[in-house]
Amino acid sequence: MKIHNQKIVNINDLLPNTYNPNRMNSCCIDLLKNSIEKYGFIFPLVVYFDSDKQKYRIIDGYHRYEILKRINAEQVSVIVMDISYHEAIQLTVLMNRIKGFHQVEKMSDLVVKLENLGLEDEEICQNLGMEQEEYLRLKQQLGIAHAFKNHKYSKSWEIKE
């Protein structure tokens, strides 16, 4: 088991990620706010250090972060992961899948983003906990041509003159 660096950081040193497909309805946001106010902040945010921005980018805990900003928290507990950008995307999706549902269009965009980062279909499926069928459906959301752009076709037909 890996042990990661847990620390307290200034809330202004955090950045949300731009790829999270998870959304919470206002009722759940209110429940989260009430929970934080009643019990305190009990789950640290999971982050990685974005060296380009010199800030910590949120992998998991965006909604907690938003609530903490609303209640004027100055500091927050984080767990700092030493992982790559594509691993951060995949961990965000995994954490969301463990907790709930995703918006299909946003998940389709993420699948394409990971594919464009050079990950193979099998790797994406394995790392996101997806069956091949679900992965294919997400790719098909973007159109059938995109879904099969890297497909290797057999030469089952022969051209005769």
Number of domains: 2
CATH level-two architecture of the largest domain: Alpha-Beta Complex
How would you classify the helix and strand content by structural class?
alpha/beta
Q: Nearest-angstrom radius of gyration?
A: 19 Å
What spatial order of strands do you see in the largest sheet? 1-5-3-4-2
User: How would you sum up the major sheet?
Assistant: 5 strands, mixed
* Low-confidence sequence ranges: none
Instruction: Indicate the percent of residues in helices.
Output: 40-55%
Q: What overall form do the CA principal axes indicate?
A: elongated
Q: Gap between N and C termini, in Å?
A: 63 Å
Total helical elements: 7
Please, what is the average pLDDT? 83
Number of strands: 5
Give the C-level CATH assignment of the largest domain.
Answer: Alpha Beta
Range of strand content:
15-25%
CATH topology of the largest domain: Conserved hypothetical protein from pyrococcus furiosus pfu- 392566-001, ParB domain
CATH homologous superfamily annotation of the largest domain:
Conserved hypothetical protein from pyrococcus furiosus pfu- 392566-001, ParB domain
H/E series: EEHEEHEHHHHH
How would you sum up this structure, described in words?
By secondary structure, this protein is α/β, with parallel strands linked by helices. It folds into 2 domains: 1-85 and 95-101, Conserved hypothetical protein from pyrococcus furiosus pfu- 392566-001, ParB domain; 103-149. The protein is built from 7 helices and 5 strands. The protein has a 5-stranded mixed β-sheet with strand order 1-5-3-4-2. A hairpin with a 4-residue loop joins strand 3 and strand 4 (55-60). Helix 1 (26-39) crosses helix 2. It starts with a strand and ends in a 14-residue tail after the last helix.
